[in-house]
Amino acid sequence: MKPRYRLENVVRRYRTAHPARHIEALRVPALEVAAGEILGVVGPNGSGKSTLLETLAFLTRPDQGRVLLDGIDVWAARQSLNARRRCPMLLQHTVLFQTTVLKNVMYGLRAAGMRRRQAQERAEHVLREVHLDGLAQRMHRELSGGERRRVALARLLALEPDVMLLDEPTAHVDQANAQLIEATVQHLHETTGMTVILASHDLRQARRLADRIVTLLDGRPYDGTMDNAFTGTFRMKGDGSFAFHGENGLMLQVAPQAIVSGDSDRTATLTDATVHIALDADRLLIRPGTADNACDVGGTIDSVHRCEDRCRVTVRLASGQELHATLPQSDYLRCGLNVGARVCLQLTAGSLRVIGMGQ
Amino acid sequence: MFDDVLRNAWHLVVTFDPDVFGYAVRSLTIATVSTLVAGVVGIPAGILIGQHDFAGKRAVVTILNTLLALPTVVVGLTVYMFVSRQGPLGHLELLFTVPGIIIGEVLLIIPLITALTVAAMSRTGRDVRKTALALGASSRRAHWTVICESRFGILAAIIAAFGRVVSEVGVATILGGNIDRFTRTMTTALVRYVDMGEFALALALGMLLLTISLSINILFQFVQGGGQE
Asked: In B, which residues are within 8 Å of A93 by CB distance?
């Protein structure tokens, strides 16, 4: 598919009083987003998700590199205003203008030069589509958090954009409104084929919505998902397994088959080099009891978060680190697991992915 | 005795005593003109400072905040030195005139309007600007949107400045000279009548001042409430 976006060696730094202490928030050697794709961008807080989206929305100009939209280097071609109109962004923090819902939805249309009557008709149509027509004359301060978020989304939809950039679209939103927002995004993508780039700290949401997921860690993108990310070094052992020494004190014995196919061959060449790894929470097998096998990891259940039919279990290891594992609620109940119980985590086949190398 | 004073004061207010209302009209005129002139300077300055990041911005804001607490007599004295006969602006003969008082009041409230405008812009300015740009607004339109969204804060700054001038004594006394039917304002007249033992007149002025202050505060609360999320 033709790429909608292409990023080449993009670097974004935040300035501090001392040039030597500028903070590098984003470094993307290469990234392509296909037209009509839903790309999920996941990563922990402060990993650079918002900076990446603001760069893609042309709200911030990279310090280095090029951002190409449909093959055009937007900043070099001085087309950032036009590009911003084609690629509006839902910011993480919702700001509604101090007026009615209708006028909020009309804002972008009026900014693009549309006549008032035409803009009003379009805004009313969009509000009907997202079932907010009953709120059209409400003032911004008369809305709940979820309604505010939906109005903010409607403001984007009214622009009929080529790309929609959504930064944590369901953060601080109740479940009912979150489902409506997700349904709107999915429906829109199915009916218009619009490109959607969605930043979320919720991996499950990204998995539900996105065609492809990119993980950001310290401003650097890695293909695929990543729940338990660690940085450290590998050592090959005599029995063919690997020992991973994490910078934060995590020690893992890793059987070759636990490493994602393709990465295992590479791992042998990575001895003593700094690598970034991720353990797939869905592929960590959890069972009660202590670790018998050298390749298993023992710990205690610290917390359990139930979501729909699955449980996300946080296990605290003896060395103090946390590992997350997800499993069906039925399995969790069948195993008789509880907070405080001693458990053993097994790295099943393909549970470890090498997501990057070096600093 | 207090009953008589109160009754006389009430009588002066309800019968629209020409002296009392003359001072009130003069005070309100000075406050209105001063606020308008200071607003023309202070609001754009506040918008510029609030919307732009530049080296030394924090120092400028600190100075502005310090000027908020500037004693009115110090402003009066400073302007007096400029407009007195021997001062560099003495030839303009502004001392003991209403325009002279207005100059002092303007200098007094410019920092107030500027500082409150900066605060209004800073509260939400960055987020509003980013939102406007993210919806495809041009940079100029985004600036204008930030100003519009800060309108309640800016209006509150104007009202606060107006209230400060109405209730101010130091500048009006030093630069106006408290000349009856010429530069005497409500506050300076009140001081004068207390000195003379004319408590009924002083109390009538006090009642009027209190009414004006209360009205300004109610308006202030209303305007601030309009901007709240």
From this structure: 127
In this prediction, residues A130-137 reach a mean pLDDT of 92
- pLDDT for A226 beyond 70: no
Q: Using 50, 70 and 90 to split pLDDT, how confident is the model at A266?
A: low
- Best residue in B130, B131, B150 for a mutation probing chain A (most A CBs within 10 Å): B131
CB within 8 Å of A36: residues ≥ 6 apart: A1, A4, A189, A193, A194, A195
Whether the Cβ atoms of residue A59 and residue A83 lie closer than 8 Å to each other: no
Angstrom distance (rounded) from CA A137 to CA A128: 13
Report CB contact under 8 Å: A98, B145. Answer: no
Query: Which of A285, A225, A260 shows the shortest CA–CA distance to A353?
Result: A260
User: Which of B53, B128, B133 to probe by mutation at the A interface, max A CB count within 10 Å?
Assistant: B133
Instruction: Please name the member of A81, A88, A112 whose beta carbon is closest to the beta carbon of B134.
Output: A88
Lowest mean pLDDT among A44-58, A301-315, B36-50, B132-146: A301-315
Residues B81-119 as b/e (b if ≥16 CB within 10 A, e otherwise) read ebbbeeeeeeeeebbbbbebbbbbbbbbbbbbbbbbbbb
Indicate the pLDDT class of residue B44, thresholds 50, 70 and 90: very high
ipTM (interface predicted TM): 0.72
Two tokens, residue B146: 């930030």
**From CA B119, how far away is CA B122, in angstroms rounded?**
5
**Which chain B residues are closer than 8 Å to A81 by Cβ?**
136, 138
Residue A271 contacts B where some CB pair is shorter than 8 Å? no
The two three-digit tokens of residue A254, written as one number? 């890793």
Find out whether B192 and B7 touch, Cβ atoms under 8 Å. Answer: no
Is a pLDDT exceeding 80 seen at residue B43?
yes
Comparing CB atoms, the residue among B128, B135, B229 nearest residue A108 is B135
Domains of chain B, CATH where assigned: 2-222 (1.10.3720.10)
- C-alpha distance from B156 to closest chain A C-alpha (Å): 16
Contacts of A112 in chain B (CB under 8 A): 136
- Cα–Cα distance between A156 and A343 in angstroms, integer? 47
For the segment B196-204, the average pLDDT, to the nearest whole number, is 88
pLDDT digits (tens, 9 = 90+) for A66-77: 999 999 999 999
Tell me whether residues A141 and B149 touch, CB distance under 8 A.
no
**Closest partner CB to B136 (pick from A88, A98, A141):** A88
